[in-house]
Design a protein that fits this description.
β6 and β7 form a beta hairpin. With about 350 residues, this protein is an alpha+beta fold. It folds into three domains: about 140 residues, Gyrase A, domain 2 (2-Layer Sandwich), CATH 3.30.1360; about 80 residues, 2-Layer Sandwich (Alpha-Beta Plaits), CATH 3.30.70; about 70 residues, Beta Barrel (Elongation Factor Tu (Ef-tu), domain 3). About 20% of the residues lie in helices and about 35% in strands. The longest helix is centred in the middle third of the chain and has 12 residues.
């Protein structure tokens, strides 16, 4: 099992440690509900150093990143980031990721920890004929996510960079907490606002201590369980749950990051999907009765006909109801009411737009 550079910190704080994508990670420190609400109302800090970082640079780097990613990399300027997918030849999602344009010919791809090996293999195997260099920096970089409405007040204490001017999917590179060459970005995965700090492993403990001991904000360490409930409230996809290699971006309502005109790998399959439609699509739903939806639960229509399945579900600490994501067959997308089967009970729910809050 791998450990992040902050593993001992999590243990000393009494975190509950679990296996996550091959890493020993803090799933919670107190209660998931309390941690969730703290991020929504104040500010929390997540250690997400298990994420993978792949750098692509060189003369053909822009051309190559545009070839393997579904979004339009040519629209990406230095200092900007972009949500993306890497697709296989059948249009299935190998991974979803964020691409940072560090320099004119240098990009940082931040990928899911569980997919790092297959992503790297795919990226290297398709690079023939492109003049670029691919480096796996995952073992060198730690990542802290500072999330919540008080995150700006907290982070401004440690940098002279004008982070209040950062728009969504933008970043600065500079000094933070007296340490240089830190990437400070604003992409988020909680919907609560905040920043991400990309820090060298040898420096992350100092930054953690500075932030955790701040007197200007009520910061708490937050585990991955609350990160999951926060992202579900926003309707954000989680790889392995809501998207995988058997789903394509059109099914997952990710048309907005799928630019077929760039002719990325798998674009022919996406064109076919756009022309012929899908069998099912991802929807959001919320319970009208007591209950908590979980991954794998079956979805039924009003006639109790099986029409789909749950991919993510939780009890929303903000809405105080069960909410979830799932796929249902296209012909039932206009239905307003569905049922989630929990054991022998059919729990009434309504299809709703995301985000839930």
């Amino acid at each position: 099992m791998k450990k992040t550079a902050l593993f001992d910190k999590h243990k000393s704080l009494g975190a509950k440690i679990v296996d996550f994508a091959g890493f020993l990670m803090p799933v919670s420190y107190t209660s998931v509900n309390d941690e969730h609400i703290h991020v929504r109302n104040k500010v929390g800090m997540f250690d997400v150093s298990h994420m993978g970082e792949i750098e692509i640079s060189g003369i053909d780097s822009t051309k190559y990143v545009n070839y393997i990613c579904s979004n339009d990399i040519l629209k990406l300027k230095v200092g900007k980031a972009q949500y993306n997918c890497i697709l296989n030849n059948n249009g299935g999602i190998i991974d979803d990721l964020i691409v940072y344009k560090l320099e004119e010919r240098k990009y940082l791809l931040v990928v899911n920890a569980s997919n790092l090996s297959k992503d790297l293999e795919w990226i290297i195997s398709n690079a023939k004929g492109f003049n670029c260099t691919i480096n796996d920096l995952s073992n060198e970089i730690s990542l802290l996510a500072i999330q919540g409405p008080d995150s700006e007040t907290l982070c401004k204490e440690y940098t002279d960079l004008d982070i209040s001017s950062l728009s969504n999917y933008s970043f600065f590179q500079g000094k933070f907490g007296g340490i240089d060459n830190i990437i400070i970005s604003k992409t988020g995965y909680t919907g609560a606002g905040g920043f991400e700090l990309y820090i060298k492993n040898e420096d992350v403990e100092k930054i953690w201590e500075l932030l955790i001991n701040s007197k200007n904000a009520d910061l708490l360490p937050i585990g991955l369980a609350a990160r999951d409930t926060l992202r579900i409230e926003m309707g954000y996809c989680l790889y392995g749950n809501d998207i995988n290699e058997k789903t394509n971006p059109i099914q997952a309502n990710l048309n907005w990051i799928t630019k077929i005109e760039t002719k990325f790998i798998g674009h022919e399959a996406i064109i076919d999907t756009l022309n012929n439609g899908t069998e099912d699509k991802l929807i959001g739903f919320k319970f009208l009765e007591k209950g908590i939806p979980r991954k794998g639960y079956q979805l039924y229509n009003i006639d109790k006909k099986l029409i789909g399945y749950v991919t993510s579900g939780t009890f929303s600490p903000i809405l105080k109801i069960g909410i979830g994501l799932g796929y249902i067959k296209d012909e039932y997308l206009d239905d307003k009411m569905i049922f989630v089967k929990i054991r022998d009970n059919f729990i009434k729910a309504e299809i709703t737009k995301t985000p839930f809050i």
